[in-house]
Amino acid sequence: MSGANRIAGQGRLTPARTARFTFDGKTFDALEGDTVASALLANGVHLVGRSFKYHRPRGILSAGPEEPNALVDVSRDAARRQPNVRAPVQEVFDGMKVESQNRFPSLAFDIGGINNLMSPFFAAGFYYKTFMWPKAAWEKLYEPFIRKAAGLGVAPTEEDPDHYASRYAYCDVLVAGAGVAGLSAALAAAEAGARVILVDEQPEVGGALHYDLSVKIDGQNGYDWAQATAAKLKAMENVTVLTRTTAFGYYNHNFVGLVERVTDHLARPDRKLPRERLWQVRAKRVILATGSIERHMVFANNDRPGIMLASAARTYLNHFGVAVGRKVGVYTANDSAYEAAFDLKRAGVTVAAIVDNREKPGEGVLAEARKLGIEVLAGHSVVDTKGKLRVSSMSVARNGGGSARSIPIDALLMSAGWTPSVHLFSQSRGKVAYDAATGRFLPGTYAQDCLSVGSCNGTDGLQATIEEGLAAGELMARATGHEGGGKVELSGENAFEWTGGMAGSGEGAGVDTTVKAFVDFQNDVCAKDIRLAVREGMHSIEHIKRFTTNGMATDQGKLSNIHGLAIASEVLNREIPKIGLTTFRAPYTPVTFGALISHSRGDLFDPARKTPMHAWEEAHGAVFEDVGNWKRAWYYPRSGETMHDAVNRECRTVRSAAGVFDASTLGKIEVVGPDAAEFMNLMYTNGWDTLKPGRCRYGIMLREDGFIYDDGVVGRLSEDRFHVTTTTGGAPRVMHHMEDYLQTEFPHLKVWLTSTTEQWAVIAVQGPKAREILEPLVEGIDMSNEAFPHMSVREGKFCGVPTRLFRMSFTGEAGYEVNVPADYGEAVWEAIWARAEPLGACAYGTETMHVLRAEKGYIIVGQDTDGTVTPYDASLAWAVSKKKTDFVGIRGLKRPDLVKEGRKQLVGLLTKDPKVVLEEGAQIVADPNEPKPMTMLGHVTSSYWSENCGRSIAMALVAGGQARMGQTLYVPMPDRTIAVEVSDMVFVDKEGGRLNG
Amino acid sequence: MRKYSVFAVAREAMRGHKGWEPQWASPEPRKEYDVIIVGGGGHGLGAAYYLAKEHGITNVAVIEKGWLGGGNTGRNTTIIRSNYLYDESMDIYEHSLKLWEGLSQDLNYNVMYSPRGVMMLSHNVHDKQSFQRHVHANRLHGIDNEWLTPQQAKDYCPPLDISATARYPINGAALQRRGGTARHDAVAWGYARAASDRGVHIIQNCEVKGIRRGPDGAVTGVETSKGFIGARKIAVSASGHNSVIMAMADVKLPLHSVPLQALVSEPMKPIFPCVVMSNSVHAYISQSDKGELVIGAGTDQYNSYSQTGGLQIITHTLDAICELFPMFRRVKMMRQWGGITDNTPDRSAIQGVTPVQNLFVNCGWGTGGFKATPGSAHLFAHLIAKGEPHKLASGLTLDRFRTGRLIDEAAAAAVAH
Amino acid sequence: MLLIYCPYCEEERSELEFRHGGDAHIARPTNIADISDAEFEDYFFLRDNPKGLIFERWRHIHGCGRFFNAARDTVSDKFYMSYKAGEPKPYIPGVSPASEKPLSENVGETYEATEGTAK
């Protein structure tokens, strides 16, 4: 049995196909195709949740994604738990576990319900007026209380084991919504030959045809026509039909985000399938056929379980075969709700009365009601309801006064009319226009290449909708160059044209400020709250929204916005369009983070760049550090060694024997062409004309404002060819910077730039034995000091492969950097290692590289400089050509602040106690006893234990540093003050003799 | 002004809240004001309040094109902190933080300043160097900011993934405990109410169309959608639109306006106790009192006044959020939006006089202006009243782009959230 | 995400392939070393930051690598046209100030002209 309220012969589900699920621990039967809402209703369960603020018992209000009340927690297993799931959207699968939310200890008895009693105190915005005393109590007492009471569902606490997918797609025509309008449009566009993507959020196409049984299209039952049409479209090569797929966001230039729910409805999904798939669609044209959403009536206690939208009750009956009550009342301001009463009546449900707050309901529906023997109370309103956990009666009174009559019911269906879904249109930055005649906001001015059709465009009537859809499909197909196929024609008929509708509070909402007539169910915003907001001076709809939280719940005002606006309009006595409309923002319905990130997680979050020697380094125990996207070997600890031990050993070894270092991550740019030197002259502060082929120079690159941008050693291979190196992190931006100037400022120069960072593997071999290690592996290069001095580059062969061999040093030792094609990097490294190891050399990592270069006072751009340092500040004046009349940064360097006295300059620091190693980033003062805020002279940029010096060393940016040589300054730490002496930056081999080995 | 208190709320509760008055008056504009402030966001409203409160200048109008607080005040992720690097920045943000600490009481309006701590994650050696530099600079300046180990960071923020196998493992964090969040709308409303109470005119739905100047070049008033309004002094604080307004007086600024995006999740029970920022992977997250995760995303790369941007900016940020907090992959985005930020080349604000006499500007707060609101407003009021900057804002003047005395927080910290 | 027409590749590609390059038509002074502080400030820092028509630089960094210019509306984010670096600032009919109208009829090509479809 799949529920006592399932009516035999009603609905489209198959009675034999059952599924079983639990709700708050109790087991229920459902049919395949049920939603959680329809299954619960079939079993007579109306109470499914508690509201946000007052914790009022709430039931199922809708049959769609606009649901504000019936939000539940759905899980497949512990790690696959999802809070805030809309019960009318989530399909039941066998074994699913459903829990209600925001209640303690149970749904039927919720302690938070006390808030309801306290509600006079908790008026809109009350928290702005109190909780201010004592001062500290907000954070410690009031706020935690409020936070705990709010918040709906419980966030997942385990990592999500599911995976998600992403797809980019392109089409001529994207159709959002597969109701009558959308199907018609898609059909016309597809027949014309356009590439069409048709999406609908529901499991099946059809839209309103799910519930409207009176519709016939081309003589066929409407719903069946829809399925047949979808099948026809699916069979066409140029069409993609996506169901369970929501077009959630309409972005710039016809870029539309879709999210497809792939497995959430399956009991045992194939683990290879993603849970959801993000589609990022670029459409030449978009057709919006997003339909409209029925509004509730605003009256006292309109929120009890059992009170729902009329169209929802119709859906539950006609699609799911479920009667939402045995004795139902209807409260409406428009004709559409009558049809719900008719369908229920015909299915054997008692209709207690149709209460219509209009004096003159539509003739057609009135006649039909009479025929079916349903009492219609025109010019009446429901002014109150009763029933604790489910509605038990409604009080009905004649409009304008008179005594109320109580009518027992177990469900109340309501309809205040239909709100066109202009969400996507509005997201596309189209401007809506208010149609006063029908009281609707409709698409007005279009901003992108799209068209709205059907009820989202305010089009009433079946045939008009069909024709509008067909015309739009054809038009959009033509606009994208498709004129094939014949004219598509369809004819439709249905029972009634609907009239009527209202916005705002009805008679039953009362002017009495204690009446709870809900406008926004989830956030517990009542008509009185809107009025209060207006009274307090909140006259813009944005202020009203933010003050009351109307429209800020998970349904984002799909039901409440228009009512809120109408109430404000009434109180302010100002027309609705003058008050404004809050902005529609993506997403249309909430979208899982997992779907939005899809593959970008774990290893694919930001793919790591690894050098050709990475595997060797890993195998030899390297610890890696992240530098930009790169993984760099940081140090190579041997068994039992700490990082400190390892670095000390590596530092000793390089200076006493030699070390091998992977420098492949350094950026490399090939600058080639007859004007290469001239270009280099413009990009770097140095002069390049005098650099002879075969020689290298350390270059400084500035931004136009005069601050150091990058640095690196540049080798001139021939008159017209430079091999430029950059910092590891700087490579892409330096390349971009060079291209920018070359293409846009100096396009007359004949120069070609190529990034070669990943073409070359670079192995630095540094130390007294460097030459001894390399010499036997080199062919065609005279390795003698005289023939190949420091700061030279040679081309030849290394281990039989082409090499660019640099004689250069970032350690102060005699050294080489072996560039070989990246594919040979690991093999060449192995060959070098095979010679190096027996000679007592070690492999060393970036930490040792840092220490060794600091011992020599070589700077690292980005560590010792920070974007506010000039070459002069960094003691690099020698690298700034005095002869050149132009280079990037030449003018910036001359600005008053860059040439004034007292600028921060790079200097060395020696702690008075040689054992103390300063903390990088520590601040430097002259007077350690100055009260805070202290005058900070600068900070420690680099600081290490230098095993070779037997003491700590540091570099620092210090105001007027060059003039402070020998001065004692102080580094105040939380626990002590460290005295330091300002020194030069060269701590090892001040004469530089070791470079020549 | 009727004082707000728990007693007032209780009294009104008894009579259906019928006695509340409008929080601010909505007068017709006068012919002339001593000061017109262009821009009814937190900075502008606050400046009006402090002009009245501290300088006795009450013949003031705040002119707002749309609705109060409808610009970046009402669309930011409400992060408050003062642990900036340079003295100029520390001065103003700490001044601001101190004002935040007493703002609810000062305004008699609960702005829900919640010092739940702002934690900045360090992912590599470079981050660590940079954050420790901040920590030390802040300490010597008298600002709280402390370095945490990864475990201490996790203890402070339990959802954090500190595993070594993460793509960018966390190697520490800087925590400013006094940092936190506040209720953004309440800041605008609280200032508006308090300013209005002191006689300031708040004029909404009034767009400035021009700035009129006298024969001596000094400003004389503004042309607006409600007609000409005279002013002896004009102070512009229009965030993303500063360039547009200042162009009306032929003043060109070093600004570019770009959309900064943000999003919130569906509301959930408390799970996230503080504010976490990561510059390296680019993520900013906290949980609002309503239970939504409030997530700051990046800026789009191009100039735009559109308050929207590309989906890729949002997804990129969520990549990072889910990398730091893998359990949030099943959480859902409920709403995304954008605000127009006016950014300077050095990512520090500009507050000062302009080449036009009696025209003052407060601009360039970029992606981080909310936290500065009380401090900026307070010092802006001083500037307007005295005609020269307050000592604490003296570094923010416009001339630094000529002299090169930049306050390069961008170079120091990547993004100035 | 914008859809950007690269005048070198002669096709529209997703914004992901491009990098924005700031304002267009700001030439680096040829005598830059000799300009005043104020001129340098104007060249390097001060910007119109217009609400409406902007001429801006883009680089097709993950495509052909070329820098080019585009005219776009900063409110709607719609492109009027893209054009190659070095070409003069185009006149956008109905948008550019009338004072910038060229004397000849040879106005810049618009998207409509180059693409043949109404945008």
From TrEMBL, chain A:
Keyword Oxidoreductase appears in the UniProt entry: yes
EC numbers: 1.5.3.1
Domain of life per record: Bacteria
One example GO MF annotation: sarcosine oxidase activity
Enzyme class: oxidoreductase
PANTHER family: AMINOMETHYLTRANSFERASE, AMINOMETHYLTRANSFERASE, MITOCHONDRIAL
UniProt similarity note: Belongs to the GcvT family.
Official protein name in the record: Sarcosine oxidase subunit alpha
Automatic annotation (TrEMBL), chain B:
Any single GO BP term: tetrahydrofolate metabolic process
This enzyme's EC code(s): 1.5.3.24
Keyword Flavoprotein appears in the UniProt entry: yes
Required co-factors: FMN; FAD
Subcellular location: Cytoplasm
Main location per the UniProt record: cytoplasm
GO MF annotations, alphabetized: nucleotide binding; sarcosine oxidase activity
GO annotations of cellular component type: cytoplasm
Domain Rhodanese: 35-79
EC primary class: oxidoreductase
Pfam families according to UniProt: DAO
Keywords per UniProt: Cytoplasm, FAD, Flavoprotein, FMN, Nucleotide-binding, Oxidoreductase
Reaction catalysed by this enzyme: sarcosine + (6S)-5,6,7,8-tetrahydrofolate + O2 = (6R)-5,10-methylene-5,6,7,8-tetrahydrofolate + glycine + H2O2; sarcosine + O2 + H2O = formaldehyde + glycine + H2O2
Family: Belongs to the SoxB family.
Cross-referenced NCBIfam families: soxB
Protein name: Sarcosine oxidase subunit beta
Automatic annotation (TrEMBL), chain C:
Stored Pfam families: SoxD
Location of region: Disordered: 94-119
GO molecular function, one term: sarcosine oxidase activity
Keyword field: Oxidoreductase
EC numbers, comma separated: 1.5.3.1
Alphabetized NCBIfam families for the sequence: soxD (TIGR01374)
Protein's name in the database: Sarcosine oxidase subunit delta
Organism encoding this protein: Shinella fusca
Lineage: Bacteria, Pseudomonadati, Pseudomonadota, Alphaproteobacteria, Hyphomicrobiales
